[in-house]
Amino acid sequence: MDHMLALFLLCPFVFLSAVTSQNDNVCSRPQLAANIEMDEIQRFFNPGAVLALSCKQGYTPVLGPRTIVCTDSGQWAKTKLKCIPKTCPFPDLLSNGEIYYEDTVYQSTINYTCHEGFVLTGASTAVCQANGTWSALVPECKPVSCGLAPIPQFGMIVYDKLIRGNTTDYGVTGTYKCRPPYVVIGDARAECTASGTWTKTPECQVMTCPPPENIYKGYMSNNDDRDYDFMEVIRYGCHGDYVLEGSLQIVCQQDGSWSEKPSCKAPCSVDIQRGRILYKRQKLWIENLRPNRVLHKDIVSVYCLDKARNCGYAVPSQCIDGKLKIPECFELPGAAEYQLRSGSLPSEIDQC
């Protein structure tokens, strides 16, 4: 009886010792690298146990193997398995807008914005999903719309591009015009703005100019002593040999003033008593120039002598409003030389 009792008291210790010895080399639940997971939920594994590994949603396995084994030493075998995030395709460009993103891997975000004057249609953000696609399509940036430009009384607008329908898009421009004698008061240029409204509409008001003045040695097409309407025209001319310089007409402008008047420029006389000149491609003795007068801006050449080479050459001079400068190299021949030896003059000898 004592022997049995002693054996019974010994048995628990033997049993506990056997269990402890059997569990010394078990593997604890493994510590897995980032984004790797397993399906098992138990805490301890006996040697020889095999665990299947997988990647979390949104990640792709590379290298391997994809299983680990509990070894006799109670340690899990090593694995080179890595899980890298899935990649979404690069997003398309956004017309009239901007795309902001740092990466295109799983859980990356894209932000979309539109340029001034454009409105975003669609999602303003998109996220790279676990299946390698974006959560939303690329949106559109549509231009802000204005109605047709308001028209002032007695006025009109000329758009810079063809307009169809009753709407215009942001950035469309035009120019206001008024029917004479009305003129545009304010900014004649108009634009559909980013706020969906047109810039300020000008007004059309009557504008007149006072009676214009005549010009020296000139005449006007109309001498009426009255006010003249915007865009009315007066034409000028010159008397005799005077030449009109400038525009042939003046116009009543929208600020109530006339455009710049022309002027009548005086003719010139060729101030030499003896000699030959070149005028309008003809060689003339000065006494044959009848009358002795050339018009404003006409060119007359006199002849000078190159003494070193004993040859003559023509030097041009231009008539400018009644003044014709005779070149300094010209030497007036004496009366006898001119009458008796004209063949020796610079205009008659060999030309340089």
Overview of this protein structure:
The chain is mostly beta strands. It has five domains: 24-85, Complement Module, domain 1, CATH 2.10.70.10; 97-143, Complement Module, domain 1 (Ribbon), CATH 2.10.70; 145-206, Complement Module, domain 1; 208-265, Ribbon (Complement Module, domain 1); 276-344, Complement Module, domain 1. Helices cover 8% and strands 34% of the residues. It is built from two helices and 30 strands. The strands form twelve sheets. The protein has a four-stranded antiparallel β-sheet with strand order 28-27-29-30, with no helix packed on it. A three-stranded antiparallel β-sheet has the order 2-4-6, with no helix packed on it. A three-stranded antiparallel β-sheet has the order 8-9-11, with no helix packed on it. A hairpin with a 2-residue loop joins strand 27 (276-279) and strand 28. The model is unreliable at 1-22 (pLDDT under 50).
